[in-house]
Amino acid sequence: MRMDLIQPFINSADAVLAQGLASSIAIENLSMEEEAYRRKGIAAEVCLTGEIEGRIIFDVDLGAALQLASRLAGVEVSETDEELVREAVCELANQIIGNAVTTLNDQGFHFHVRPPVLHTSDQGSKSSEDTEALVLCFNTSSGNICMNVALRYRRQDTAERAAIAG
Amino acid sequence: MEKFTPVKRSEDGQPVRYLIVDDSVFARKNLARMVETFGGQVIGEAGDGVTAISEYERLTPDIVLMDITMPQMEGIEAAEKIVRDHPGARIVMVSSVGYQENIVAALQRGARHFVQKPVKPEVLYEVIKYVMRDDTAGAQSAGAGA
Question: Does residue B118 have a cis peptide bond before it, meaning omega lies within 30 degrees of 0?
């Protein structure tokens, strides 16, 4: 997977999480995932279509999700406020993806973002050779937030098709 | 949350009335909390562009805070439809997707301003103040776009 596609997501996650949690965060782990995605906490998925297509999943530990929800809502949110915590994770995903998409669009990539949806199943589909998944885990004071990015760059396909046709 | 000098309607000194449109309940509550610190009053909420149009007709708010990426009908299309029927509508787009193309499209279709998420209260406050005193410019741009 091309790092120029990934870097805006890392930068955006770093900035939005630092603001959302009001504390510094660090990338704890970065790896390529060949196996199917397995959900660990509360997860939201955002799909992209266009020159770049694929999906990004945000998987947030319950502790981090509660802290985020409390901070964003301005009131203490407990485990019993399940809906609010899920909403907070979706909104977080929306903000991180939106900011990254802004950077990529201004760099000349054109694609569309679908609204975030809650990822409720325990397991997702396995990434393929051309949509390999990159997993980034951010360590925060209240738990881990993982970003599972499986994107495919389609502009190359168009160029390849044109070369074959030409 | 920080306290701000209340923004009032110039014609009668009453609180500014807001319609908040976002598919995320969470984002709506967050924005509502913010505008209340500006002395505003949230008179309605909507979770998609179609509902936003009907709620605008029903409530005629002073300002609409409108997300872009939403199910059914996206914010830019909803803003265009509202402004077409109500050229004086003050719509501020509030979205995490803030690339230049999107901002230009929103402004060309009648939105008065654009605020990128995550929203900083002090930024939104300045935009609200600007939009509320921008009646003349707004009417002119709405007229030019008609």
Answer: yes
